Amino acid sequence: EPNMVVDIPAKVKSLNEYIALFSKKYRNRAKAILKNAGSLQIKTLTEAEIKTEHKNIYKLYEQVYNHAKFKLVKLPENYFLELKKNFPDKCTVTAFYYKNKLVAFSSGIDISGLCLEAHYIGFDYELNKEIDLYQNILYNFLEQAIAFRKVRLNLGRTAGEIKSTIGAYAQELTCY
């Protein structure tokens, strides 16, 4: 499967400016999704906070893992904590809280300095229907990439159709 990537125009300085480039249909859809984000507390976690939340993070990761059709490897429970310990300036773990409960997370890695790579995510599938957790994770990745002045966001290979609604396109993936 190809990678789904978003090229971020240099003139774009905020998520709102990026969304303003959408057609009316997708702009309205984005606004409705982001309205649900108003009920969320979104926070970039420190290493200490990841340590506190690691069991809850892992449970959310497992929900996504268990829904996946293709499973290559299951991560160990301490994966996200170790990732942050080993790459403190290159790795971000973002938490999404709803009514003071962790309901989703995302992890991203800045590998090249020019591109933010979406890494692993996790979310509560039941709440996803109510508050668009998955799509809010995607918009949060966009917001981070714009804030970090990246020229590209790599969202990975799955869920191409929904990723295309935020401007992602398929790019051939080469593996060695």
Mean pLDDT: 94
SS elements, strand count: 7
Residue share in helices? 40-55%
The H/E string reads EHHEHHEEEHHEHE
The main sheet orders its strands as 2-3-4-5-6-1-7
Class from secondary-structure proportions? alpha+beta
Contiguous helical run count? 7
Major pleated sheet: 7 strands, mixed
Low-confidence stretches: none
Question: What is Rg?
Answer: 16 Å
Q: DSSP strand (E) fraction?
A: 15-25%
Termini Cα gap: 15 Å
Tertiary shape: globular
Give a brief description:
This protein has helices at residues 15-20, 24-37, 47-67, 79-86, 125-131, 133-147, 160-164, and strands at 3-7, 40-44, 91-98, 101-110, 115-123, 152-154, 169-171. It has 176 residues and is an alpha+beta fold.
Q: What does the model show?
A:
The chain has helices at about 15-20, 25-35, 45-65, 80-85, 125-130, 135-145, 160-165; strands at about 5, 40-45, 90-100, 100-110, 115-125, 150-155, 170. It is α+β, with helices and mostly antiparallel strands and about 180 residues long. The longest helix is centred in the first third of the chain and has 21 residues, at about 45-65.
Keywords:
single chain; 176 residues; alpha+beta; 7-stranded mixed β-sheet; 7 helices
Task: Please write out the topology.
Elements: E1 3-7, H1 15-20, H2 24-37, E2 40-44, H3 47-67, H4 79-86, E3 91-98, E4 101-110, E5 115-123, H5 125-131, H6 133-147, E6 152-154, H7 160-164, E7 169-171
